[in-house]
Amino acid sequence: MINTSFLEKIAAVIIQDYSGKLAETTIILPNKRAKVFLIEALKKETTHTILSPDIISIEDFVQDVASIRSVDSIELLFEFYEVYLSVTEKQNQQSFELFANWAKTLLQDFNEIDRYLLDPSHVLSYLNDIEDIKKWGIEVENKTKLLEKYIDFWKLLPLYYESLYNHLLHKGIGYQGLIYREAVHNLNHFSNTTSGRNFVFAGFNALNAAEEKIVQHLLALDQAKIYWDVDQTFLNDPYHDAGLFVRRFKENWKHYKSNPFEWIVDDFSQSKNIQVIGTPKTIGQAKLAGSIIEKIVAENPLTSLDKVAIVLGEENLLMPVLYALPSSVGSLNITMGYSGKNNPSQILIAKLFKMHTNALSRKGESYVFYYKDILDILTHPLVEPYAHTGNLVKIIKENNYTFITHNRLFELNSDVSDLFKLLFQKWENGSVAVLENISTLLLVIKENFSHDNEEEKIAKAFVFAIFKVINKLINYYSRHTHIDNIDTLYAIYKQVIDVAEVSFEGEPLKGLQIMGVLESRVLDFDTVIVTSMNEGKFPAGKSQNSFIPYDVKKELGLPTFKEKDAIYTYHFYHLLQRAKNIFLIYNTENDGLDAGERSRFITQLEVEKQVKHNLTFDIYNPVLPTTAYKPMVIPKSEAVMERLKEIAETGFSPSALTSYIRNPIEFYFQKILRIREVEEVEENIALNTLGTIIHETLKALYDPFVDKFISEADIKNCFKLLDDEVLRQFKVVYKEGEIKKGRNLLAFEVAKRNVSNFLKMELDSIVNGDAIKIIALEKTFKRHFSHPDLPFPVLIKGNVDRIELRNGKVRIIDYKTGKVEKTNVILKSWNGLTQELKNDKIIQVLAYAYMFEKEAVDIPMEVGIISFKNLKSGFLPFGFKEEKELDSTVSKEILHSYLEEIALLLKEIFDPAIPFEEKIN
């Protein structure tokens, strides 16, 4: 039988041994989280009302001993920079950004030196000596300025340490290591002033040198008791990492020479079901965790899930796991916070930083914004409903504004709200002004939440979390005025955001428990689901973020990755210690961003398998649908038939017919539902825009010649007007878009060259004796088409680029800016004309011939294409080539055969029994 939980045993000892002096008892636990569970265990243990003993975490306890306030990493960095400036010569002082790069690592080393009570001058001069030896062979005359500065840096480390230590001590604040060192200095004073108190240390594993000293001091004075939670399986195995630290303490502590070691338990070897499951990707693990919970609930609907824990090896699994949980999970307690990075308010502030830092980095007098940055902010859910800038967004998109000056932005927005002013106020007055601006902005956003519903409460919590961060930064920056750079501010903001989590609210003792690895310390569960059981995640893997080399750490007794792994090993095995059902989930993908091989802990469980453990291995793969995508099928309802009839009356364009051939669903969206493409800013000129510009330029140049024969002089005059006309058309079509540089300048030159080459071709024809008379330019033609197979007449309607009379023959021309070959307009058989998309150009030009037929009367007619990417081929006429003969004149027979095919296509479109079916290429 598996024993009661560790906290229940502690509660029993407290009630039994300390019942008369609970008010004078302090229980110290590894973390704050376990306090709630211990109070609950005490409640169950007692039958009458009692005063709870004082229960605190080890960090809070050490702060009490030292009487020093702890500071966060950012404040510490600011304080260190102040010290650095005071002890470094002016010419050697670095900017805050450069300083921060190495200072963070150095502070971690200072912290470790202090936590392990080492002599700082010894360790830091040791580092200096190592660097000296590395550069030993370099002659004095070969030492560069850079090298000298590098060696000087190592010499200055003891000075940095001492100055920072004294500076912080003077202010009564400190980092963790300093507090621990001071606590040890202050031990005698502390134990004298608290001689009447009893201290109970419970559930520890790895203690640093300072913690060891404090605990042993209180044990020696008989003011304290310590209770370990170690299983004999790990303690008695000299190589098992889960017992690494406790074995050392048991052997080395003076206290255990004359006192028993408590408690050694035998829970791990009891019967357990351990299921090791591999599944692809992170999301697969989340889904699997959800389905395990679903199965537990389904097997026993009345079961309470408060003895079930999901332990996440990676915190980014939290949201996928929450989405994967079945709805049958009632209560839920999440001990981790919601990541500050994903907070919607934070995303807005990050976008604001991006926009303004980009604006500040642009050279020039005016403060210029990039359109994407502006739209990112104006369409953000916290801004869009309240800023009333729909019209401004429309203007930016329709007019292709790419870069907008600050003044122009305010001119374009007729209705300037307070929110808009705060968002786009210039960031030119230093960091504190920027932070105060953001702080006011967040208050305005909060005021916009007028409904008191659940959604808005959550939104307010998110806004408040960022508001606190910004105010903290205002506090730092007001005290440290010499750090005033927006880029630095952004870098610091990003660091602070990482720790600015939004807590989940819940009843900690009820329901399913979801937690990170560290939160699971001291707690026991019956069913444990552990995710991300991969190397690099669980255990976390090596990270050498220190200036102190590995061998020096080994020699001085500082923790290396070996000790860090041992801490992880203890947490893992402690999770399993009293659990009955264990699910270990790992990612089967060996490569990729989020992958790694299966965790060594799984292999260890397999190799060192206990007799009563039932260990199984499975691989779960997601169920893949037999078809990746099911094409859309939309039946023709009465409303659809009505709309089709309406199109038949207003006119079917050749492009509408070819869009149906390309994909009936595309036709349905564009023509039946009339769904238009979203208007976007065209930063680089799109091909269709370039086509429009060329078409419009040719129309403008040739307009004066309609109903006239063109002369050489006319074309030569067109060459003179060409540059200005192309520029004018660019301005009309592309509006405010930038055409003076980049890809758009190239597009502008391409447009000029295309038109110029066309004019050269036209000039050559005239010189060679062609008589060309323009009949129509960019003109819309229409003609009704009736057929016995069609339920009603259909109007065929289209815009023809150019119709001319050339050497006594009517020529209908369609301009194409893309490449068209001669083969694209040659037809060998009428059969299946409308079945294949490759015939789209033929369908189009013959539609123009049909529409113009009556006006051409009996003049022979030819239709075709001029391709600007294939101008050397000139006019590409449509030709029907049944056998050897190629006929390029559009005869009545050709039009008759064409219309029969078009009738077949229209019949299909109008047939209510044939649905619109998506074509997948």
Description:
By secondary structure, the chain is an alpha/beta fold. Helices cover 50% and strands 14% of the residues. The chain has 35 helices and 26 strands. Strands 11-14-10-15-16-9-17 form a 7-stranded parallel sheet. A 5-stranded mixed sheet has the order 19-20-21-23-24. Helix 2 links the parallel strand 1 and strand 2 (54-57). Helix 22 (431-447) packs antiparallel against helix 23. It is elongated and about 125 Å long. The model has no long low-confidence stretch (mean pLDDT 88).
What's the short version?
This protein has about 900 residues and is an alpha/beta fold. The chain contains 35 helices and 26 strands.
- Side by side, the strands of the main sheet go 11-14-10-15-16-9-17
Question: Fraction of residues in helices?
Answer: 40-55%
Major sheet attributes: 7 strands, parallel
Strand residue content: 5-15%
> Which ranges are low-confidence, i.e. pLDDT below 50, for 5 or more consecutive residues?
none
Q: Report how far apart the termini are.
A: 63 Å
Structural class: alpha/beta
Number of H/I helices? 35
CA radius of gyration: 40 Å
Q: What is the number of strand segments?
A: 26
Give the overall shape, derived from the CA principal axes.
Answer: elongated
For the residues shown, what is the average pLDDT? 88
